[in-house]
Amino acid sequence: MALWTHGEGRYLRDPRLVAPGASSVADLHVLRWDEQGEAHVVVALEAHGELASEPRELLRSSALSGLTHDASSPRVADAPSSEEEARDGAWRVRIVREGARGSVIVEGASRGPVIAWDASAIVAAPAIVATDDGAWIAFHHDLREDDGAPDVVKWIALRFVTREGEVLEPAAPMRERDRDREGEEQGFELPSMLVGDDGAIALFGRGSHRFYRQDLDASGWGPRVALGADEGWGCRGRRVAVRAIGAGRALTARREKQGIVIEAIDAPRGGRPALVPARVVHEGSRPRRDAPRRPDAPDPAARWSRATLFGDIHQHSAHSDGCGVADEPYLRARYGYGDDFVALTDHESFLGKRIGPGEWGYLQSVADRHDDPGSFATLIAYEWTGRRHPGPGHKVVYLPCTGLPIVSRDVVPEGKALVDAVKALGGFAVPHHVGWTGADESAHDPDGQPVWEICSCHGCYLTADHPLGARGDLRDQMVEEVLRRGHRFGFIACSDGHGLLWHHGVARKRDPFRTGLTAVQAKARTRDAILDAIRERRCYATSGVPILLDVIANGSLPMGSEVRASAPVRIEAEAIGTSTIRELSIVSARGVIATARGANARARVECELEAGWAYAKVVQDDGEMAWSSPIFVDRDA
């Protein structure tokens, strides 16, 4: 095994292995990010994986988005759809989507394009290996094999398409496929393949935190075998590159925390597996609806000539320490949950992973591809990951548009400097899970940090000992404690989902992506309007369901307002739940100051506030909650 380390001022990603040059057994292509920009480089390899030559630059630019999945000649990708297709010689596999439905299309058969798989589900990451009589294809999807419903965890599927266009699958059931497995290591996605001389298959893929190999031969499937040591939670590459080098041997290359690991392995053997006709079209599949729909009632935001919109604007993919490709959060939000907006917020520098200018450009282009103004909005964002308390903690950065640079924690390691830099770009930052990693109180700026994320898969950080629980116990960092010390900000909630059931045992729900939702009262379903609503604190947090909530101060001022008054301010709140509302309360620094107990899904409450802050809190019989952004009252002298 050989290791090509990232090194000082150098970061390596996207390994591809291709046929060798004159003096090597294989050539390794990677993208390298250094002080001069990014470069597509190639290096020759020896039989044990050692580098046999100095890296040679094929292309240099300020930013390179990625390499194509072409078995013979990987090149720099020029489109955000590059992750949705793969080629081997005359054969090509690609993903085609129409609304909630995804299809795997194979080209190269004698009768033209062939549909190899089709369902209302997420399908992604195709791979292909051509043979004398057809092509093996692999891809991952989230459709359960037992009931045909989309789920959280993805698994690889394997198909063979003959030259005549017949679609076959292994006769043997895949071993160790477990879409309900809990813990930190879940799923099997982002495939690559190697076909042995006798027709046996080696399938490679990525779990949530390790790479695996699983062989298929004439006797059926073997066990999944982990590649390398278990180094725990981290940010790794997305795929294993693999290439046969003859004499029953092969090389693999994968990006681990330290760099590109190149390993010599035995090629698969044991004979060609038995195949049977595959089910292609999954008619019974359906879009996922794991959470309640929004109430069928007039929107209280209409009084402001606005609409209440819901979205999850903090989650991760395999571009940092989560699961899945960059398209998946957008597809899941729009077609799975019916949300109005979403953001993918991968860590820009964390646990061995850095997002350089090319990858950042790619992630922005994917967000733009899914943005559909008026129907569905995508935000441009990333997570800045500082040191835990007493360090600056973690913050998500939201930018107003594409084309702006990342403000990296490697360059700007302190919270106040980050907030200032992001504000200068027209964006803002949002601290989160503050009772676990810290609130970074000294860095707070009401303009640069207009809202805080108060609830997620990690729990609720309004108060210590909250009924929804919380990871960590920094009691003086909780949201209400910081409000009592005079800081002002609104509330949002997000999942911080990484694609793991129960968020590996931390979350209170099986589906981590329904543990927090941001609601905005926006003028339009567009990126700008949603960001404006958040900046104005015209927003609120829910525990993952679309509860409708509105707050009015003195009959004309919305939630998030600052009010200067010489008399007590009248506060009214209205809520429409997704189930029976147990209580609707107004909470101030003194605790609950008014409560209305509901008997159905609607409730109203009103009270007066002398000074300070107050927010509305909804509690449903099913335990779901919502919290408005506070009203802030200053008394005239």
Protein architecture, described:
- This is DUF3604 domain-containing protein.
- It holds the Pfam family DUF3604.
- Residues 68-88, 281-302 are annotated as: Disordered.
- Residues 281-297 have a biased composition (Basic and acidic residues).
- 8% of the residues lie in helices and 42% in strands.
- It has 6 helices and 44 strands.
- Strands 23, 24, 27, 28, 29, 33, 34, 37, 39, 40, 42, 43 and 44 form a 13-stranded mixed beta sheet that branches. The protein has a 5-stranded mixed beta sheet with strand order 6-7-8-9-22, with no helix packed on it.
- Strand 12 (150-162) and strand 13 form a beta hairpin.
Q: Which characteristics define this entry?
A:
five-stranded mixed β-sheet, 637 residues, 8% helix, globular, TIM Barrel, mainly beta, Immunoglobulin-like, 13-stranded mixed β-sheet, Neuraminidase
Integer tally of domains:
3
Shape: globular
The chain-level mean pLDDT equals 96
Radius of gyration: 26 Å
CATH topology of the largest domain: Neuraminidase
Number of alpha- plus pi-helical segments: 6
InterPro entries: DUF3604 (IPR022028), Pol/histidinol_Pase-like (IPR016195)
Protein name: DUF3604 domain-containing protein
Pfam families: DUF3604
